[in-house]
Specification:
Elements: E1 2-7, H1 13-18, H2 23-28, E2 32-37, H3 42-51, E3 57-61, H4 67-76, E4 80-84, H5 102-114, E5 117-120, H6 123-133, E6 138-140, E7 163-167, H7 173-178, H8 180-189, E8 194-199, E9 209-214, H9 220-225, E10 229-232, H10 238-241, H11 246-253, E11 258-260, H12 265-269, E12 276-278, H13 282-293, H14 296-314, H15 316-330, H16 346-353
Parallel strand pairs: 1-2, 1-3, 3-4, 4-5, 5-6, 7-8, 7-10, 8-9, 10-11, 11-12
Helix pairs in contact: 3-4, 4-5, 8-13, 11-14, 14-15
């Protein structure tokens, strides 16, 4: 069976964690994955859309194509899946323009309706697609992580010597800046505390001393594990509720407790008092991080619980059977001859665990 993924790039974080991570399981099931980053050059892109006819299943990831290009893809593809892990039907809350975009809404609706199946990264996104086509044409498969690839934090530091860590891209740095009041309160409570920023760009002022760490795919896991507490701040809006919490999963995989504000994936993934703390106000942030800074044993215990939770609910091994089985069903291959153990209600189970309904 041939599977074609039309993506933003073979090295793009969304492809690596949402499709590329399942490649070993796909190969074991006899599925050959081809990755084709969508070209900017129109003639090249048209060739890519027409070439979709050579695949048994085509995954269009995140992109909202112009309507005529979407029609060409739909005409060429035997089976079309739309995979998305952001609220692509809105503009980013970090945009200078208003977040509501009718162009994006119409493009999203057309894409989901033309696809044979939509795969959503979290319950909020699942519901957005299900309102358009019904829940039977939408699957929830979260962004997954391989916890064994992350070394474990040692938690040997205490007090102001502890290191906070934030990992993200240029496009999400604004979240860190928006949380400056909370970080400033932490710095006042723990003078000299350091925030490691693992990124391709670094902030000028977030209220706390920043130690820049250049991001690379090879070093990111070690940079996170060399810290003591992971942090995540999201704006309280629908764009943020569409986020799938990758940075939180990375912190948990490295055995770090997480301090985050209770929005979207943060609320879903961080179990308050068990794997970290949910904090909203500057005082709550300062108190939570101070408590963890002075208690290495608590950090270690929370980190261990978080790592177990990440593997159990969001691990690649947990979701690979569901992903593979979905590809096989849509391609009309028989699933019975493939050695996988898929739960067809896995997405619903995750929704139930997070206290939501699809």
């Amino acid at each position: 069976m041939k599977l074609l993924a039309l993506t933003e790039g073979a090295d793009h974080v969304c492809f690596r964690y949402r499709i590329g991570a399942f490649q070993p399981a796909l190969e074991s099931a006899g599925i050959a994955l081809t990755v084709a980053p969508l070209a900017r050059d129109l003639r090249v892109r048209l060739g890519q859309l027409r070439a979709a006819s050579d695949a048994d299943v085509v995954i269009l990831q995140r992109r909202l194509l112009p309507r005529w290009q979407l029609w060409l893809l739909r005409r060429a593809a035997r089976t079309l899946i739309y995979d998305f892990d952001d609220a692509v039907f809105r503009r980013s809350s970090l945009s200078r323009r208003r977040t509501i975009s009718w162009t994006r809404r119409r493009g999203f609706a057309a894409t989901v309706r033309m696809a044979d199946l939509a795969i959503a990264g979290n319950p909020f996104l699942h519901d957005a697609a299900a309102r358009l086509v019904g829940a039977d044409r939408v699957r929830l498969i979260p962004t997954c992580i391989e916890t064994t690839k992350y070394p474990q934090a040692e938690h040997g530091r205490s007090g102001s010597d502890v290191r906070l860590v934030w990992i993200g891209q240029r496009s999400t740095l604004r979240y860190l800046v928006d949380g400056r009041q909370c970080l400033g309160a932490v710095a006042q409570r723990l003078p000299g505390i350091e925030l490691r920023v693992v990124s391709d760009v670094f902030p000028d002022d977030v209220g706390i001393a920043v130690a820049p760490r250049n991001w690379s795919q090879q070093s990111e896991a070690h940079e996170i594990a060399n810290a003591d507490i992971g942090i995540s701040w999201l704006s309280d809006d629908d764009w943020s509720r569409g986020k799938c919490g990758l940075k939180v999963l990375q912190y948990m995989a490295a055995g770090l407790p997480v301090v985050a504000n209770p929005v979207g994936a943060n609320r879903d993934m961080v179990i308050d008092g068990e794997t970290g703390y949910l904090a909203s106000t500057p005082n709550e942030w300062a108190a939570a991080i101070e408590r963890l800074a002075h208690d290495p044993a608590k950090r270690r215990a929370m980190g261990e619980r978080g790592r177990h939770l990440a593997a159990e609910r969001y691990g690649i091994d947990r979701w690979a059977p569901e992903f593979v089985a979905t590809m096989l069903r849509l391609s009309r291959y028989e699933v019975s001859h493939v050695r996988i153990s898929s739960r067809t209600d896995a997405g619903q189970e995750l929704v139930d665990q997070q206290g939501k309904t699809c």
